[in-house]
Amino acid sequence: MSTNTLKPVLTRASEAETTSDPSSTMTLLADCGTDGSPITSYRSSFAKGAVGAPAHFHTRASELFFVIGGSLQVLVDDEVKVLNEGDFLLVPPHTPHAFAAAPGSEADVLFTFTPGMPRFDYLRLLGRVMRGEASPQEIKDSSELYDNHYVDSPVWRAALEAAK
Question: Where would I find the beta strands (DSSP E) of 17-141?
């Protein structure tokens, strides 16, 4: 018998909550503190040209990216990289990063935060903002709560402009 206080977390595809906007769909898999999960993990499918997140950093968690399919353009510090199917990236705390579908490509990506913290309400809020159902100010007001701290990145702005 296991003495581990953590329990296995199983999310069936048929039962996973999804949230979507015109350019992406997020499948919510495991949220820290829900059903004993020590991590937060979700899957995002981005349409061609879809922007995922502006430049930001986290103070408490590392963010892991695993590209299931397509290609993802990612800012890490001041460098833009393209991740392709099968590529993995770990972004440690306090490291500015951003992401979007790579130019001309769709992207299917698994995201994991460790240590986890409840983030599903943030992802739901993002969907509402992208659909015009909530104000972008709500995102700004939630920076501390969800550990998303937005920063200006001329390198990322230039990469997005070049992709148009």
Answer: 17-21, 24-30, 40-46, 51-57, 62-76, 79-84, 88-91, 97-101, 107-114
Distance CA 146, CA 53 (A): 14
Q: Judge if the upstream peptide bond of residue 115 is cis by omega within 30 degrees of 0.
A: yes
Which CATH class for the 18-159 domain?
Answer: mainly beta
Tens of pLDDT along 16-45? 999 998 899 999 999 998 877 899 999 999
Look up the pTM and report it: 0.93
Cross-strand partners of 98: 75
Rounded CA gap, 164 and 153, in Å? Answer: 17
In the chain, where the domains are located: 18-159
For residue 139, the one-letter residue type is I
Torsion of CA 54, 56, 60, 65, to 10 degrees: 50
